[in-house]
Amino acid sequence: MVAKMFGLGRFRPFRLWQEVGASQRKAGGFSMVLMPLAVMLIAAGCIGGGQPYPADYFPEMHYQSGIRYQEPPRLQPPAGSVPTKGTDVPVDPSQISAMRNPVTRTDATIAKGKTLYMTNCSMCHGQAGKGDGLVAAKFKNANATTLPNDLTLPATQSKTDGQIWGIITNGGLNMPRWGTLLTAEERWLLVGYIKSLR
């Protein structure tokens, strides 16, 4: 039937295959050839230990080098080099509480701090700093032992600018470190805004 559908009846290799197949089917040998082949295909699909590509026959884009054709390799900066925009000077933890905010608190700096707060902090500490953000609700539903602080309470407002800056920089408990994500000036702007929440 397949030969009629595709016009393969006159094609000599197909006729030979039909004849060999018919003789093997008569002897039961056809199933003896197909059965091990099917088992091997199924087994090949199961190996790999959960890897996405157990048998990688073709190169994938994510395995290729990021260097373009005839482009020299990128050189890494020497160890200890300083970015052109500068870097944070390591601060002794015992000196953090005595640090003073170098950013003068004005309406403009508080507005900048509020923008940074809404972008980076409000999801945990809430829009008004009450510790009722969307992530805080998830923590409560999961019965977490540590919840985001209410930044308007004396526990936070009584801290020095340096202490708040240190907590933002180094993180603590469930709070991530922001020292690598925000510049020192942005963290001081946040301190000014948090202090305005009293």
Question: Can you give a write-up of this model?
Answer:
With 198 residues, the chain is an all-alpha fold. It has two domains: 2-61, no CATH class; 94-195, Orthogonal Bundle (Cytochrome Bc1 Complex, Chain D, domain 2). The chain contains nine helices and no strands. It has helices at 2-6, 12-27, 29-46, 107-120, 122-125, 134-141, 154-157, 161-170, 184-195. Helix 4 (107-120) crosses helix 9 and helix 8 (161-170) packs across helix 9 (184-195). The longest helix has 18 residues, at 29-46. 14% of the residues are buried. The model has no long low-confidence stretch (mean pLDDT 78).
Question: Distance between the terminal alpha carbons, to the nearest Å?
Answer: 86 Å
What is the number of beta strands?
0
CATH architecture level-2 label of the largest domain: Orthogonal Bundle
CATH topology name of the largest domain, in short, is Cytochrome Bc1 Complex, Chain D, domain 2
Q: What oligomeric state do these chains adopt?
A: single chain
Low-confidence stretches: none
Mean pLDDT across all amino acids: 78
Structural class: mainly alpha
Cα-based radius of gyration, to the nearest Å: 34 Å
Number of domains: 2
Q: Characterize the largest beta sheet: strand count, sense, and whether it forms a barrel.
A: none
* Relevant CATH superfamily of the largest domain: Cytochrome c-like domain
Assigned CATH class of the largest domain:
Mainly Alpha
Name the helix and strand elements from N-terminus to C-terminus, one letter apiece: HHHHHHHHH
Helix content: 40-55%
Q: Give the overall shape.
A: elongated
In DSSP terms (H or I, runs of 4 or more residues), the helix count works out at 9
In terms of DSSP E residues, the strand content is under 5%
